[in-house]
Amino acid sequence: MTYLRHTTYFLSILFYGWIV
Questions:
Q1: pTM over 0.70
Q2: How far apart are CA 8 and CA 6, in angstroms?
Q3: Rounded to an integer, what distance in angstroms lies between the CA atom of residue 19 and that of residue 3?
Q4: The organism sits in which domain of life (predicted)?
């Protein structure tokens, strides 16, 4: 599940950018 890890990483950055 490499795509899952990539999606989690992308979501993390997107979520972080949304909060900040």
A1: no
A2: 5
A3: 24
A4: Eukaryota
User: Which pLDDT tens digit goes with each residue over 1-20?
Assistant: 688 889 999 999 999 999 88
For residue 20, give the 3-state DSSP assignment.
coil
Residue 4 and residue 17: Cα distance in Å, rounded? Answer: 20
In the block, which residue shows the tokens 């979501």?
11
How many angstroms separate the Cα of 17 from the Cα of each of 1, 2, 7? 25, 23, 15
16: tokens are 């972080």
